[in-house]
Amino acid sequence: MVFDIETTGLSPETDQVVELSALKVSGGEVVDEFSMLVNPGVPIPEIVTDITGLTDAMVKDAPSIDVVLAEFVKFIGNAVLMGHNIARFDLKFIQRDALRCFGKELANDWVDTLVIARRFLPELSSRSLESLSLWYGVSYAGAHRALADCRINKKVYDCLTREMANPSEAALKVKACPRCGNVMKRRSGKFGDFWGCASFPDCRWTEDG
Predict the structure, then answer these.
(1) Taking the CB of residue 109, how many other CB atoms lie within 10 A of it?
(2) Residues 154 and 203 in one domain
(3) Catalytic residue numbers?
(4) With contact defined as beta carbons under 8 Å apart, do 160 and 84 qualify?
(5) What pLDDT, in 10s, does the model give residues 66-95?
(6) How far apart are CA 162 and CA 146, in angstroms?
(7) Are strands 110-112 and 81-83 parallel, antiparallel or unpaired?
(8) Domain range holding 182?
(9) pLDDT at 169
(10) CA-CA distance, 83 to 63, in Å (whole number)?
């Protein structure tokens, strides 16, 4: 289940979801889709409108997040969620709103394609969805709307599965975190050098190094 959100800004503490979309995938093929605008209850900043094309007028009559999230939960069921940079961004918003609306976070497992790209494409200087689209020759048309980003992400993931099946020599040398799967980075502390997970502070796994 590929999903993506658009928001009024970058902060899960203060910003709000304005669009939530998902693709249901079975056997590698998209079999259903979900996409709803959300009335965030606050004005959409001009910079967000410039990036996404979403305006206050477009979301004025849209349902609130509690209604949209309830529909999203019915759509995804217990499916594994997948998206790009969802560990640091999308899930922060979704779990915050789920906790507020339902009194508990979603229990779905998830896969982050950014983490996969870091591990299996260490030679790339950028692993943004746009950079990966360029790397694999995937069209980036329509990006920065949630459903379009889901479609792009699905195509990028299909390419990444080939990297996972046949990792390069560089990828085989990457040290992966045994807890979350992200790459481990060499760090220095007051007691000397060590390996720390790149997902810190969300993942605090360390190893002597």
Answers:
(1) 10
(2) no
(3) 144
(4) no
(5) 999 999 999 999 999 999 999 999 999 999
(6) 25
(7) parallel
(8) 175-208
(9) 92
(10) 24
